[in-house]
Amino acid sequence: TPAKPLDFIREIVAQDLKSGKHDGRVQTRFPPEPNGYLHIGHAKAICLNFGIAKEFGGRCNLRFDDTNPTKEETEYVDSIKEDVRWLGFEWDEEHYASDYFEQLYEWAEALIQKGLAYVDSGSLDEIRAQRGTVNEPGTPSPFRERSVEENLDLFRRMRAGEFPNGAHVLRAKIDMAAGNMNLRDPIMYRILHTHHHRTGDKWCLYPIYDWAHGQSDSIEKITHSICTLEFEIHRPLYEWYIEHLDIFPSRQYEFARLNLTYMVMSKRKLLELVQAKLVEGWDDPRMPTIAGLRRRGYTPESLRNFCHTIGVTKYPGTTDISVLENSLRDDLNRRAERRMAVLDPIKVVITNYPEGTSEELEAVNHPQDESFGTRTIPFGREIYIEREDFMEDPPKKFFRLSPGKEVRMRYAYFIKCEEVIKNDQGEITEIHCTYDPETKGGNAPDGRKVKATLHWVSVADAVDAEVRLYDHLFEVENPNDVPEGGDFKDHLNPNSLQLLEHAKLEPQLSSAQEGERFQFERMGYFCCDRTSTTERPVFNRAVTLRDTWAK
Ligand code: ATP
Ligand code: MG
Ligand code: MG
Q1: CATH code for position 284
Q2: What residue's CA is closest to ligand 1, atom 16?
Q3: Do both 68 and 128 map to the same domain?
Q4: In the 3-class helix/strand/coil scheme, how is 331-358 assigned residue by residue?
């Protein structure tokens, strides 16, 4: 990766190292909530947190922010670990916010003892109403002046399970007139009689994100707690808790989250697509999830390069999805072997090719890189070409095959169209051509030129395959932007998946393994799907050869 000036967060880290803050220690963390699969936005946060640790000789933890038992599952924990590793990162320590529940509880009691937290027995609606608005101060809760003894007694009984959901909450006692709404006596705990994926039924009291997050950072002695801009307004609260508990002073820094055109990125929305079966699952190749991108054919390098390219700033914005696609194109152009595949076949019969014979032709695996070597491909009297490469009645600028026209078959011969065969419905069933045996390898000894080179597959040796072409999942640039009463799902692109069930592949491709990527000449980059078998290979198009949207 090319050298680039440091982004503002790396500047801060470099400064802190220079000034000797934290004794030259750099400790970051990536803190996903295990309530869904990771997406490309998370990849940005992963590259940032793990990248900084790596570049500055620091450490990075993986911490599951599992404080909300109703939405979290072990399946998500496992997928998150797989995806972080696949992206090329390894965490130093693995933690769970739920491991800190006991410590958090003790700290909550400590705040009660200091008169800095109280049990509120009002309803959530009442508490919300007390908060006031940005322009007017809030009103103190009638429970705000409860005694330390009463608060402690109630809080212990909350933990013991004596009260139903919603009966009480614990609130920090800060300032109901604070300009920052987050400081108007925020809730720290709620009662939830719910099974947790790790702590089981041990707790019926669960901490709110703001109460758990900073304290978890502090327990792990995180030096730079990096999060997205929405949390900037939470920073005073983050610092208030740390200050009043007098614990390790982790510091929070905010950067702009990644948004992509033609895509939604919130886990809630992605889950909705999965649950409504509008996509095949979390790893549907149209999804922005790491699992989906991997299945689509993205490489870890292409995602890391993408994150490097977009950089890290404080300014919210939306990145054009073509930037992501280009990073894959660049990477696969370098690493993918070339093959021939006809996605929508039509048969060509070479009438002057000796019947009952065939031959093996040599083809290069990568035109720009000899180290990829060569392979042989069978050629015979009958071949498939792409239906769109033939026109019976072509416009002037159509240089591919048409009656009387001569074109080159890649790695093979010149062929010339002599006759079009049709069925009773008038549909073309075969194209009859002649070939020039003198043009083997693709050049005519008499120096005559052709204007097109087409890909093809031998009929006798072709492997039948299923090929899936993808377009953007949404048909508008910003699917989050919906009119009153509308829904982001209204913007789904009905043509985001095109199934080609009669594709013909060169025989070598029958041995392709799940996740193997190729360039199908002239058609794009393709990745062997997990549903693929030797009998019936399945390929997903990862990306086209050129950016067809940039017109
Ligand atoms: P979502 O809004 O998709 O549900 P989240 O922020 O709730 O995302 P978390 O699991 O809490 O999801 O995210 C873990 C980390 O990844 C957080 O530090 C968060 O700031 C970061 N992150 C999440 N989405 C993005 C994004 N689009 N761009 C950059 N970082 C992100
Ligand atoms: Mg979150
Ligand atoms: Mg979320």
Answers
A1: 2.40.240.10
A2: 42
A3: yes
A4: HHHHHCEEECEECCEEEEEECCCCCCCE
Q: Are residues 196 and 272 in the same domain?
A: no
Q: Is there a single domain that holds both residue 472 and residue 445?
A: no
**Which helix (H) or strand (E) covers residue 451, if one does?**
none
Q: What is the pLDDT of residues 86-134, one digit of tens each?
A: 999 999 999 999 999 999 999 999 999 999 999 999 999 999 999 999 8
Ligand 1 centroid to 32 CA: how many Å?
A: 7
Question: Any known ligand binding at 43?
Answer: yes
Same domain, 329 and 351: no
Computed from CA positions of residues 63, 65, 67, 68, in that sequence, does the dihedral angle turn out positive or negative? negative
- Backbone Cα Rg of the chain: 31
480 alpha carbon, distance to own chain's centre: 17
Look up the pTM and report it: 0.95
In single-letter form, the type of residue at position 539 comes to: F
What is the pLDDT confidence band of residue 2, given thresholds at 50, 70 and 90? low
State ipTM.
0.96
Please give the single-letter amino acid code of residue 149: E
Q: How many domains does the chain have?
A: 3
Tokens describing residue 59: 């450490």
Question: Which residues line the pocket of ligand 1, CB cutoff 6 A?
Answer: 31-33, 41-42, 44-45, 65, 227-228, 257-258, 265-267
359 is in an annotated binding site: no
